[in-house]
Every structure is written in structure tokens, then in C-alpha cells.
């Protein structure tokens, strides 16, 4: 990992507009490539527009705010995270694949044991409610497989209606799983993402956020300890924004170039809904009916599905990566382990204590 | 039976030996005083007859006691544990929902916790408030009774909280329920003879000193002493005073409930028996009617 000073201060931020387009420009050309700013002199942008996608409605969000200590997280040697446990928590079966599938695959590739937890039943994503629930259940399992997760869980709360759920009950179930699985790191929607329109995303991310620290507590659900579970100490969080509208603080850019094919496969696994699934093979058949073919889509359905997703739907992460000198990237608000305050005090005492 | 005499209640008397050996029950109450008053005799009886018992309190009892909320929580917590020990419960759980305010909680969350406990402890039988009980003005009683009833059957369903199975905690059916007859007019169909267990009940109530009458005898003895008087009934020490006060003044309902059945003391319950399933009836029919294939 290499630290990269991105925007040192407000003034420096103004100078950095060449690298990332400010919100003022995006207001005129939303979703387009970085344009020139019409911000008045002396006014510094606080949000930066993403170039968006010509092909994927669910790519990177429209804006990011960047922290001045932004880090690019690059590939680490296999086994770096051995012994650690990752929980990727999503409301719907296509959230993780779209927004953070590359990072999940990367962390697992570097040694994490990964678990995928889906909170809704995805009933809204199908020809009928029943068919949607069944297909998306399969998709969630296949997605977990594509990313290398050890197991997938589904809570099956009703899709699009999670603001009707008891947040405390979802939190309790997450605390149970975090303790059972001994989770160290979570990856999920940013609970503070602005302009989030989906109630399921909001409820899930808030529940995850509070479950993370309560899972370490002795007084929250002590009956879990009677059942032999142990406190979970979750020290790292990766929060991602949603799209098309989203607006969160980004302090970590993860280089997913080595794991882009995992991300592609996890999106192909989402056949019940979303822009990926079997879109490539459908297009291939449509063209064949018109007596045409796209060489990109290859000679069979599996190739067509994979290539369609990689070429068209991965474009936003390709364009985001380009801005940071990477082939593909995913962006996060990363929260790492807190300093060891007590150890620091002890070290201070050792350095400065004098005899009475 | 719904409080009238259209159908006689079953009288559950002492059983010799330990016929319930291997079975487990959970007494789930809202406040430290609920089990002592409404079901301590039954709980003591079930444990003497072989059951292992667990005691679960849903509230933090902050509103009742001699102090403010903080000291009440502390005192009632301690007295809940000592009361459980006196009755012989194997373990005690406190869930600490806010006293008198359980109608504002997520019942689903409480249900999830009870389902986990019923599965973990392998509960066969529950003792709690009647979920359909009339005339109960206490929201904590209503919520606790309703959630216990829901949890007692859902804990058998594999698709409710399937993550429990990941921890090796398997679904399990609660097969018998004893619901308190906590208020006049509430239904009962079982009268439990607690004559052999009235001392246990007195001991349980005596532990409820912050509120619930457990310390009234010694307080009365002290007051009379300051006035230069004494009651022979209250004996020579505080322990005797508390116990005899309870025996003479606080068990009138148990005497009244026993009287129609010729019992010295009784507790009343609405009993639900879920031991006989439809499949058992089918199996019985097969055993009687099945013939060999030609």
C-alpha cells in the first residue's frame, strides 16, 4: 500500500481540479467526463463528479468527496490476511457484486475467510414475487461462490420494505453472526451516503454499523455467550456508496485490477435482476436473429455473458481506476483499527517517568 | 374453562419420584415478583419432580423499589438472582427491557432472543403470562406473554432464525405451556396443588425485598418495636418475621384457589398441551389398521 497525498488542503484542493472534476462542472454535465469548472474564483469544490457510464446505470455514484489522506490499496501477497474473517453485507443480491465485488474477491484472495450476508429476499426482482425470491436466492449463492466466499446467508426481509422492519432485530441477528463467525472486517453500504433512495440500503448499513461495535460488548445479548459464542472485535470497515445517486467520503481507492474477472463473474451470477446476468447471451441471440454477430461476445452464451459484463458494465470502475493510474478501482470510506491508546500512554510513561 | 364451572379444571397433584426427569422448563416473567406470586409453587413442584428450570426476566424492574431507577435496577437484579437460587433454578437470565414500557419495544427482537434461549436450553415447557389474558393492566405482562407464546412454537421452525443452526443450536418444539392466572377473571383449566411447596413459595417472595412484600414482616416488627409493641406472629428475628408475614397476609389467593378443591394452597393456570400432534394420530391409526401387502 502506498499513501498518496491527494488534497492537502482547501487551497491544494483547488489546484487538484485537473485530476478530478469539481461538482460545479458536474452540475452542467452530470455523469459526463471531468469538465472545466465554472466555480467562481476562490470557491473550492467539496465534491467531485465521477465520469459516469455510458452503459451501466448502476456504476460508480455521481459524486465523491475525497479525504486528504486518501490511500490506494494495492495487491498484497497471498496469505497476508490469513486467519482473518470478512463479512460482506448487502441488502440485495447485486449490491456487493456491483459496488465492491472486486474488493471482496481481493481480500479473500489475500487470505480472508469471506461470508456473504444478504438481508432482503429480493422479491421485487423477478417476473413474479415468488420467482424473484427463488432466482435471487440462487443468485446470492452463486455470487458468493464467484467471489470465493465460504458461505452465504440470507435473512429474507421483504424487499423495498425494510424501513418497516425493527432495526434492533436486524442488528441482533448481525451481532449473532458476527460473534459466531468471529468477523474482523465488514464491507457494506456507507450508512452516511447522501442521496440514498433505497430504504433497504439505509436500514442495512445502519444496522451493520451499530452491530459492529456492539458485537464486542459483554452486556449486549449476553445469552450469546451462554451459547458458547465469543465477542467479535471488528476493527476494519469498508463503506461503499450506491449509484446512480450517491455521495460519500472516500479515503481509500482499492486497486481491483487483478480481481476484475471475479467481479465480472459475480455480476454474471445475478440473473434474477440487474444489468448483468444473461444480458450478453440475450444480445447475442437478438443479433443472430438479425443475421449479425459481435466478435466481442464470442461463440457461446457463457463467453457472451462474461464479455458483455466486462466490456460494458465494468466501464465505470475502469474509468474511476484510470484517474488514479489503475486499470480498475473501487472507492471506499475505510475505517481502520483505532490507535492503542492505553499502549501509547504506557509507552509515554516508560519514556518520561522519573524516580520519586 | 374460562373462570366458570362449565368444565371442571384438572387438579395437578404431587407426583411421586421424578416423572419429569430429562425435561426442561423456562419460567418467563416480566418482573422479579411475578413468578413468586403467580407460579413459584408450580416451579418448585416441577423441579422436585425432575424438571430442570430456567428463569428469564424480561424487564429491568427500574420503576419499583425503595430508590430511584438506578438503585432499583441494581437491587431487583440481585434479588432476582437470589430468588431464583432459593427456588432451585439452574440459571437465570435478565433481558433488562425498560420497566412499564415494553409496549414500545420491538416484539420481534424479543421473540428472536427467546427463540434462541428456548433452543439453546432445549425447553420442553414454558411458564408465563397468558397471552390472551383479560384485565391485565400491565403492558409488560401483555407483551411478555404474547412473545413467549409466539416464540414457543416458532422455535420449532427451521426457517425462523436459521443462523442459530449454524451455531449448532437446533429447532425445538415447546410442548407444554402453563399460563398464569394473574388477574381475577382470567381463564384457568388447571389447579396445581402447591401444599407441599408453600414454604418454597414463601421463601421466593421473601427474597423480593425491594418491592413485593418480601421485607414487610421485618419492617412491621421494627416499627412495632419502636412503639413498644410486638406481634407474637412475627417471632424473634427478621427472617421469621418476613416469612410469617407472607404466610399470614400474602397467600390469601392461594388459599382461596385451593378451597373449592379441598387443597390448602393452589395456583391456577391455563394449561396448553401440544404433545399430541396430528402425525401421532396418523401413526396410531397405521399401527391399528395397517395390513400386510398381499
Brief digest:
Chain A is α/β, with parallel strands linked by helices and 356 residues long.
Helical content class of chain A = 25-40%
List the strand order in the largest sheet of chain B: 1-7-8-6-5-2-3-4
The coarse overall form of chain B would be globular
CATH class of the largest domain in chain A: Alpha Beta
**What's the CATH class label of the domain at 10-195 and 262-276 in chain B?**
Alpha Beta
Q: Report how far the terminal alpha carbons of chain B are from each other.
A: 50 Å
| Number of beta strands of chain A | 10
Give structural notes:
The complex is a heterodimer of chains A (356) and B (294). Chain A contains 12 helices and 10 strands. Chain A is α/β, with parallel strands linked by helices and 356 residues long. In chain A, helix 3 packs across helix 8. The longest helix of chain A has 19 residues. By secondary structure, chain B is α/β, with parallel strands linked by helices. Chain B has a domain of 201 residues: LmbE-like (Rossmann fold, 3-Layer(aba) Sandwich). In chain B, strands 1-7-8-6-5-2-3-4 form an 8-stranded mixed sheet, sandwiched between helices. In chain B, helix 3 runs antiparallel to helix 7 and helix 7 packs across helix 9. Chain B is globular, with a radius of gyration of 21 Å. Chain B starts with 9 loop residues before the first strand and ends in a 5-residue tail after the last helix. Chains A and B meet through helix 5 and helix 7 of A and helix 4 and helix 6 of B.
Name its key features:
heterodimer, A: 356 residues, alpha/beta, Rossmann fold, 2 domains, 10-stranded mixed β-sheet, 12 helices, 38% helix, globular, disordered N terminus, B: alpha/beta, 8-stranded mixed β-sheet
Topology:
The complex is a heterodimer of chains A (356) and B (294).
Chain A: E1 2-3, H1 10-15, H2 23-28, E2 48-49, E3 63-73, E4 85-90, H3 95-109, E5 113-120, H4 129-147, E6 151-157, H5 167-181, E7 185-189, H6 199-214, H7 223-226, E8 236-240, E9 247-255, H8 260-268, H9 279-289, H10 301-313, H11 315-323, E10 329-335, H12 341-352
Helix pairs in contact in A: 3-8, 4-8, 5-6, 8-10, 9-10
Chain B: E1 10-12, E2 24-29, H1 34-38, H2 40-48, E3 52-59, H3 69-87, E4 91-97, H4 107-121, E5 125-128, H5 139-154, H6 163-166, E6 176-180, E7 190-193, H7 198-206, H8 216-226, H9 238-250, H10 252-258, E8 266-273, H11 278-289
Parallel strand pairs in B: 1-7, 2-3, 2-5, 3-4, 5-6
Antiparallel strand pairs in B: 6-8, 7-8
Helix pairs in contact in B: 3-7, 4-5, 7-9, 8-9
Amino acid at each position: 500500500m502506498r499513501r498518496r497525498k491527494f488534497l492537502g488542503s482547501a487551497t491544494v484542493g483547488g489546484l487538484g481540479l485537473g485530476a478530478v472534476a469539481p461538482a460545479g462542472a458536474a452540475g452542467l454535465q452530470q455523469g459526463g467526463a471531468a469538465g472545466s469548472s465554472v466555480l467562481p474564483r476562490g470557491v473550492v469544490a467539496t465534491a467531485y463528479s465521477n465520469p459516469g457510464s455510458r452503459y451501466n446505470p448502476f456504476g460508480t455514484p455521481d459524486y465523491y468527496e475525497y479525504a486528504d489522506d486518501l490511500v490506494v490499496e494495492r495487491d498484497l501477497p497471498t496469505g497476508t490476511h490469513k486467519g482473518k474473517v470478512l463479512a460482506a453485507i448487502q441488502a440485495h443480491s447485486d449490491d456487493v457484486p456491483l459496488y465492491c465485488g472486486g474488493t471482496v474477491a481481493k481480500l479473500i484472495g489475500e487470505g480472508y475467510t469471506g461470508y456473504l450476508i444478504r438481508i432482503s429476499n429480493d422479491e421485487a426482482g423477478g417476473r413474479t414475487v415468488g420467482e424473484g425470491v427463488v432466482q435471487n436466492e440462487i443468485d446470492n449463492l452463486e455470487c458468493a461462490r464467484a467471489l470465493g466466499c465460504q458461505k452465504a446467508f440470507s435473512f429474507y426481509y421483504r424487499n423495498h420494505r425494510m424501513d418497516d422492519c425493527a432495526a434492533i432485530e436486524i442488528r441482533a441477528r448481525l451481532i449473532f453472526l458476527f460473534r459466531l463467525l468471529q468477523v474482523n472486517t465488514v464491507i457494506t453500504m456507507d450508512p452516511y451516503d447522501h442521496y440514498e433512495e433505497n430504504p433497504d440500503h439505509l436500514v442495512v448499513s445502519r444496522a451493520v454499523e451499530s452491530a459492529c461495535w456492539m458485537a464486542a460488548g459483554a452486556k449486549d445479548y449476553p445469552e450469546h455467550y451462554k451459547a458458547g459464542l465469543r465477542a467479535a472485535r471488528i476493527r476494519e470497515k469498508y463503506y461503499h456508496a450506491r449509484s446512480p445517486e450517491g455521495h460519500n467520503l472516500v479515503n481509500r481507492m482499492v486497486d481491483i485490477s487483478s480481481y476484475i474477472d471475479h467481479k465480472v463473474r459475480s455480476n454474471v451470477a445475478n440473473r434474477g435482476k440487474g444489468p448483468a446476468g444473461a444480458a450478453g447471451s440475450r444480445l447475442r441471440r437478438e443479433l443472430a436473429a438479425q443475421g449479425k454477430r459481435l466478435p466481442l461476445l464470442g461463440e457461446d452464451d457463457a463467453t457472451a455473458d462474461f464479455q458483455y459484463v466486462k466490456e460494458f458494465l465494468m466501464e465505470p470502475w475502469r474509468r474511476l481506476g484510470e484517474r488514479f493510474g489503475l486499470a480498475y478501482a473501487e472507492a471506499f470510506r475505510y475505517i481502520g483499527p483505532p490507535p492503542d491508546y492505553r499502549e501509547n500512554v504506557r509507552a509515554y510513561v516508560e519514556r518520561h517517568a522519573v524516580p520519586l | 374453562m374460562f373462570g366458570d364451572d362449565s368444565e371442571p379444571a384438572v387438579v395437578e397433584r404431587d407426583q411421586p419420584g421424578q416423572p419429569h426427569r430429562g425435561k426442561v422448563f423456562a419460567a418467563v416473567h416480566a418482573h422479579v415478583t411475578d413468578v413468586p406470586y403467580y407460579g413459584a409453587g408450580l416451579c418448585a413442584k416441577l423441579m422436585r419432580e425432575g424438571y430442570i428450570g430456567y428463569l428469564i426476566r424480561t424487564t429491568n424492574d427500574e420503576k419499583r423499589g425503595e430508590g430511584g431507577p438506578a438503585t432499583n435496577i441494581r437491587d431487583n437484579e440481585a434479588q432476582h438472582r437470589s430468588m431464583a437460587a432459593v427456588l432451585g433454578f439452574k440459571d437465570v437470565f435478565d433481558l433488562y427491557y425498560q420497566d412499564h414500557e415494553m409496549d414500545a419495544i420491538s416484539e420481534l427482537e424479543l421473540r428472536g432472543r427467546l427463540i434462541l434461549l428456548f433452543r439453546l436450553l432445549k425447553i420442553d415447557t414454558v411458564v408465563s403470562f397468558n397471552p390472551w389474558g383479560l384485565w391485565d393492566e400491565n403492558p409488560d405482562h401483555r407483551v411478555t406473554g404474547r412473545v413467549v407464546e409466539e416464540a414457543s412454537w416458532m422455535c420449532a421452525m427451521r426457517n425462523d432464525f436459521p443462523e442459530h443452526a449454524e451455531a449448532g443450536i437446533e429447532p425445538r418444539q415447546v410442548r407444554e405451556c402453563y399460563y398464569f392466572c394473574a388477574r381475577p377473571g382470567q381463564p384457568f383449566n388447571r389447579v396445581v396443588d402447591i401444599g407441599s411447596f408453600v414454604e418454597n413459595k414463601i421463601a421466593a417472595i421473601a427474597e423480593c425485598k425491594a418491592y413485593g412484600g418480601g421485607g414487610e414482616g421485618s419492617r412491621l416488627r421494627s416499627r412495632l418495636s419502636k412503639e413498644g409493641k410486638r406481634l407474637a406472629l412475627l417471632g424473634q428475628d427478621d427472617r421469621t418475621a418476613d416469612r410469617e408475614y407472607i404466610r399470614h397476609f400474602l397467600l390469601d389467593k392461594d388459599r382461596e384457589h385451593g378451597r373449592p378443591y379441598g387443597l390448602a394452597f393452589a395456583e391456577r393456570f391455563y394449561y396448553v398441551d401440544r404433545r399430541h400432534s396430528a402425525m401421532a394420530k396418523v401413526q396410531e391409526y397405521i399401527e391399528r389398521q395397517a395390513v400386510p401387502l398381499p
